[in-house]
TrEMBL record:
This is Transcription termination/antitermination protein NusA. The lineage of its organism: Bacteria, Pseudomonadati, Aquificota, Aquificia, Aquificales. It comes from the Bacteria. HAMAP family: NusA_B (MF_00945_B). The gene is nusA. InterPro entries: KH_dom-like_a/b, KH_NusA_2nd, KH_sf_prok-type, NA-bd_OB-fold, NusA_N_sf, S1_domain, TF_NusA, TF_NusA_bacterial. Belongs to the NusA family. GO terms for cellular component: cytosol. GO terms for molecular function: DNA-binding transcription factor activity; RNA binding. CDD domains: KH-II_NusA_rpt1 (cd02134), KH-II_NusA_rpt2 (cd22529), S1_NusA (cd04455). It comes from Hydrogenobacter hydrogenophilus. Participates in both transcription termination and antitermination. Monomer. Binds directly to the core enzyme of the DNA-dependent RNA polymerase and to nascent RNA.
């Protein structure tokens, strides 16, 4: 009987392009499940395929130690159940093993961009995305707020993580993570991929605005111009992919005053006062540019705070001077 099962394992492994140990585990799990059902047992069982025959053990845990006790069952009865299992339970276990392998193949792609087809929009707003062999989940929280997804359309996203949830594998996707923007930039700008330009930091308000802090190894290179491209030829396709998200590319400097000025782009900054002990900065901008510096719902200054690591107070020139006089 065991010899026949070993041949079956070899044959199925070859047909399904699976490792023999995966097929063997699926078969042993199937036999254990079938014996459990047949005997109406509640304990966990373990099956071993030995030269002398199929052995079944009851598995118990004492403290952190696993103990195995032989199950009182005849060889004939195990063989009968196993023969039945090879036709039914085994196929179910094998399906499970194949699906698991499909998910595990995606572990190596964590942090990379994947493309799939929208298959279903769930009631909670999560989107199921067909990635070929398996399905991915684009949760509501990982979606760009203004986007609407339709069945059958292609969607590009970051493979955020492959995780096990309630005994099943899940592939979590994201379109809001800063790394998604980083990977889009790498794909569009060869100089980033080659390492000539380094991305120091990214801050995003998905679908609204993003700030990208960059540094060129060659001081003669203009990293901002390279990334933006001629008339926006490189940055515009990325902005379009992100539903019109405006992307400010900022050249990194180790001078905090200069960095803060650049971070409030597109607003012009007239003066900067640093309060290092509080990691806070007060900046003066022309009165008519105040709303531009702060941004809609405070987005521009919020992103500037995050990209520089400084808390920035944006003031009109008049208020800045008034505050200076009081100090």
């Amino acid at each position: 009987m065991v010899k026949n099962l070993k041949k079956l394992i070899e044959q199925v492994a070859k047909e399904k392009n699976l490792p023999e140990w995966t097929v063997e585990n699926a078969l042993k799990n199937a036999i254990a499940l079938a014996v459990k059902k047949d005997r109406k047992l509640k304990e966990n069982l373990r099956v071993e395929l030995l030269e002398e025959g199929i052995k079944v053990y009851i598995v118990k845990r004492k403290n952190s130690e696993e103990l195995a006790f032989p199950l009182d069952i005849s060889t004939e009865e195990v063989n009968r159940i196993a023969a039945h299992v090879a036709k039914e339970e085994f196929l179910k276990e094998l399906e499970k093993a194949e699906e698991e392998r499909g998910y595990l193949e995606f572990v190596e792609q964590e942090g990379q961009i994947v493309v799939g087809i929208v298959r279903r929009i769930l009631e909670n707003g999560d989107v199921l995305v067909d990635l070929g062999k398996v399905m991915g989940i684009l949760p509501k929280r990982e979606q760009i707020p203004k986007e609407v997804y339709r069945q059958g359309e292609r969607v590009k996203a970051l493979l955020l993580e492959v995780r096990k949830h309630r005994g099943k594998y899940e592939i979590i996707l994201s379109r809001t993570h800063p790394k998604f923007l980083k990977k889009l930039l790498e794909a569009e700008v060869p100089e980033i991929k080659s390492g000539e330009i380094e991305i120091k930091a990214i801050a995003r308000e998905p679908g609204e605005r993003a700030k990208v802090l960059v540094h060129a190894k060659d001081m003669k290179m203009d990293p901002v111009g390279v990334i933006v491209g001629l008339k926006g030829s490189r940055i515009n396709p990325i902005s379009k992919e992100l539903s019109g998200e405006k992307i400010d590319v900022i050249r990194w400097t180790d001078n905090p005053e200069e960095l803060i000025k650049k971070s409030l782009s597109p607003a012009p900054v007239v003066k900067v006062r640093l309060i290092p002990q509080e990691k806070r900065a007060e900046v003066a901008v022309p009165k008519d540019k105040l709303s531009l510096a702060i941004g809609k719902h405070g987005v521009n200054v919020k992103l500037a705070n995050r990209i520089t690591g400084w808390y920035i107070d944006v003031l009109s020139e008049e208020d800045f001077e008034r505050l200076t006089a009081l100090k």
